[in-house]
Amino acid sequence: MTKTIGIFLGSLRQGSYSRIIAQELAKLLPAGYVAKFIEIGNLPLYNQDFDDVGPVPDEYIKFRAEVKQLDAALFVTPEYNRSVPAVLKNALDVASRPYGANVWDGKPAAIISVSPGAMGGFGANHHLRQALVFLNMPTLQQPEAYLGHVDQFIDEDKGEVNNQGTKDFLQSIADAFVQLIERY
Ligand code: FNR
C-alpha cells in the first residue's frame, strides 16, 4: 500500500528555499511513497478556548484529519531567531490537541533545517526535535540535515537544487527516512 509522507514547511515565503529543498526531496522518494505538501499558513493561532469552549475552527478540523491520515511527517524549515518559525510551531500545537488526541503520536518524522547562513538552522532543528520528543514522534537521528549556505546551491529562477552533491545528500536523507518508516 502506498505510504504518504506529509511535508510541513516552516516558511510561507513565495520563493522559500525550504520549499525548493522539500520539492527536491519529494522527487527522490522510492516507489510506494508519495509526498503531500500540507498547508499550515491558514491555521488560526492556537487558543485552547477553541477546544475547551468551542467552536473549533474548520481549519483545525480539516488539518487534524489530514495529519491523522499520514504515515510520516517531514519538516523542512528555516530558523527564525535561533528557533522554529511560529507558523510551524503553531501547526504542531494545533494537531497536538485537544488533550489526549495528539494526532502526531507515533508518526515517524524527519527534520531538514535550511539557512543562507553558515549554521544551517541548527537552533531551529533542535528546538523542533525537542517538541517532537514530547509529541512522541520517532525522529530520524542520522544523517542530520543542517543545510547551510543554501542560497549557493539553489537556482532560484528554476526553483531547483543545482548541485549534485546536495542531491546525493538529500537522497541519503530520503533513504534513511524510508528505512525508519518501514520499521514502524
Ligand atoms: C531569519 N533568518 C535567520 N537565519 C538563520 O540562520 N538564523 C536565524 O536565527 C534567522 N532568523 C530570522 C528571523 C526572521 C524573522 C527571518 C524572516 C529570517 C534568515 C532566514 O534563514 C532566511 O530568510 C531564509 O531564506 C528563510 O527561509 P526560506 O523562507 O527561504 O525557506
TrEMBL record:
Pfam families in the cross-refs: FMN_red
CC terms in the record's Gene Ontology section: cytosol
GO MF assignments: FMN binding; oxidoreductase activity
Gene3D superfamilies according to UniProt: 3.40.50.360
Location of the NADPH-dependent FMN reductase-like domain: 5-149
Name of this chain's protein: NADPH-dependent FMN reductase
Organism ancestry: Bacteria, Bacillati, Bacillota, Bacilli, Lactobacillales
